Structures are given as structure tokens and as C-alpha cells.
Amino acid sequence: ADDVPYLVGGAGLGGYIDVISPPSRRPLQAGDVLMLDTGATWDGYFCDFDRNFAIGSADAAACRAYDVLWRATEAGLAAARPGNSCRDLFLAMQGVIAELDDQGGDIGRLGHGLGMQLTEQPSHASFDQTELQAGMVLTLEPSLCYGNSLIMVHEENIVIRPQGAELLTTRAAPELPVI
Hints:
Layout: E1 3-13, E2 32-42, E3 45-54, H1 60-79, H2 86-97, E4 112-113, E5 120-123, E6 137-140, E7 143-146, E8 150-153, E9 156-161, E10 164-167
Helix pairs in contact: 1-2
């Protein structure tokens, strides 16, 4: 990276309640889930991705949330093909997320365009009919609510190729990493 102008995170026992929490003096503890989200630049272009980690151990709810988001991202990767719409991407990921999103909240968007700015149009949302075209750079960013008002977010960067999505980020591990 040439620069990392954006690096935020969240952490808490079993999960986090905010993805852009300010730092606190509370040290990480066993059972916490830590999420780091970065917007780095290289040669004038942005990347935007996050990673989740369990500290010491992970409870079943956090592991299940992570699994659902990992599979939602897989669904997004499969749907990210020229001719499909951002709405198609949203619905593919939302279909998997619905397994666990027990808060009944508004999921909002599940990714966005990426390039000269950290966040660009289009949005992967139910209202966005933007047609995917080869060469578009996008994020897949499924998120969900679980447990006692906890959230989890997962984010990857892709480029749309004629045959489908190509990952630009190294794919996150299929199971919640424990450090």
C-alpha cells in the first residue's frame, strides 16, 4: 500500500456493536471478536476490506455468524457476473444472511463500488438496478445482527470479468481465525 488513510475497528465479548468504534483503554480479552476495516491506497486506487478475529477462543454464536457471512460472500461471488444487477448481488447475499439475522433489522447495502474513492456508486441494495459490467471494481460486504445487539461484517474486493468475479483481496479464512 502507498497509504492507509482509513483504519477502524470494533471489538467486544462475542462480537462488536459498532464497526467504527473509537479506541478505548480496555485491553482485548479472551472471547472478544476483533474486526479491523481498512481503506488503503495503491497507485491512486482504493481497496476497502475487513477481517474478523477471535481472541483466545470464539463462542458458537460468533462462529455461526462468521460462517453465514463467509457463505453469503460466496453467494455474492457466484452472482457477480456481467448482466446481473447490484440488486441480484444483494438478494444472493441476503438469502444466506436471512438464516441468522435475528434482529429483524434493515440490512441496508451489502457492498459498493470502489476505485478513485473509498466508497463509490453503485450500491448492492434492493433498490439498485445497476447492471454489472466487465471491468467494474466492487466490494462484497455482507453484514448481520446476532446475539445481544452484536453485528458482524465481512468484506472482500472483486473485479467483474467477462466470466464472473475475480477476487482482488486474499479470501478470508473459511472459519473465524483465533489468535
